[in-house]
């Protein structure tokens, strides 16, 4: 794609590296650098670009010309990403979003600012997605559903129709939410959790690791070596 905009990525973790790849190979943004809180600044360069102290970001990147994306995951139940998003906006920077060219987003779906939508997401008609939301690869967001601000949806989750996902919520890999369900704010849904009715705010739902069978795998499959 032709690069018509510039973006600085906040963070230098694995997500920041992935964000660099996505913006560079599949967006109109040119990544011009990275910014990290000085207490966590351990390198000065990444992918040949400068890594600068976030506290001094204005010295290096003009907020009139460069947008930002805070590439942090769900640390502190999404509070860390939210804090850096709000700090950068307070400094006068405009938030960037990334929507994969291989995501299916229905034309009347409404997406807020500072969102990161990976490949193979399906966002159906009349969906509303708030600000500062991450949808990792391969999720389904059903028609008329709402994902509120600051949520993180991991891969291959299914959010059925007419659902609401409360702010700051994390939904783990392969989780599923039935139709017409309201997930309270600050919920944590672990891997493979199924939610069939409304939940209260500030809840954790987790699946349990199954116990191994009595027979070993090599014995069961008659593996000789």
Largest sheet: 7 strands, parallel
Give the total of beta strands. 23
Overall number of domains:
2
How helix-rich are the residues, as a percent range? 10-25%
**Low-confidence parts lasting 5 or more residues at pLDDT below 50?**
none
CATH architecture of the largest domain: 3 Solenoid
The rounded distance between the terminal residues' Cα atoms is 51 Å
Major β-sheet strand ordering: 6-9-12-15-18-21-23
Question: Which tags fit this structure?
Answer:
single chain; six-stranded parallel β-sheet; 4 helices; 28% strand; 2 domains; 225 residues; UDP N-Acetylglucosamine Acyltransferase, domain 1
Give an overview in words.
The chain is of the alpha/beta class. The chain has four helices and 23 strands. A seven-stranded parallel sheet has the order 6-9-12-15-18-21-23, covered by helices on one side. A six-stranded parallel sheet has the order 7-10-13-16-19-22, with no helix packed on it. Strands 3-4-2-1-5 form a five-stranded mixed sheet.
List the helices and strands and how they pair.
Blueprint: E1 5-10, H1 14-26, E2 29-36, E3 45-46, E4 49-53, H2 57-60, E5 66-70, H3 79-90, E6 98-99, E7 104-105, E8 110-111, E9 116-117, E10 122-123, E11 128-129, E12 134-135, E13 140-141, E14 146-147, E15 152-153, E16 158-159, E17 164-165, E18 170-171, E19 176-177, E20 182-183, E21 188-189, E22 194-195, E23 204-205, H4 217-220
């Amino acid at each position: 794609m032709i690069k018509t905009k510039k973006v600085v990525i906040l963070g230098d973790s694995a997500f920041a590296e992935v964000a660099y790849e996505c913006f560079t190979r599949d967006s109109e943004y040119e990544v011009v650098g990275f910014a990290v809180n000085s207490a966590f600044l351990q390198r000065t360069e990444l992918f040949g670009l400068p890594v600068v102290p976030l506290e001094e970001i204005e010295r290096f990147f003009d907020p009139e010309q460069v947008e930002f994306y805070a590439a942090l995951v769900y640390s502190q139940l999404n509070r860390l990403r939210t804090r850096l998003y709000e700090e950068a906006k307070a400094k006068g920077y405009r938030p960037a979003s990334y929507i994969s060219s291989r995501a299916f987003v229905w034309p009347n779906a409404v997406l807020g600012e500072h969102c990161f939508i990976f490949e193979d997401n399906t966002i159906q008609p009349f969906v509303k997605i708030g600000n500062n939301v991450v949808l990792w690869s391969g999720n389904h967001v059903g028609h008329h559903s709402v994902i509120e601000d600051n949520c993180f949806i991991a891969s291959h989750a299914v959010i059925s129709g007419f659902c609401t996902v409360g702010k700051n919520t994390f939904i783990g890999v392969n989780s599923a939410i039935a139709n017409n369900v309201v997930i309270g704010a600050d919920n944590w849904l672990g891997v493979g959790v199924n939610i069939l009715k409304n939940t209260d705010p500030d809840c954790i739902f987790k699946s349990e690791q199954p116990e191994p069978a009595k027979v070993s795998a090599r014995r069961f499959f008659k593996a000789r070596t």
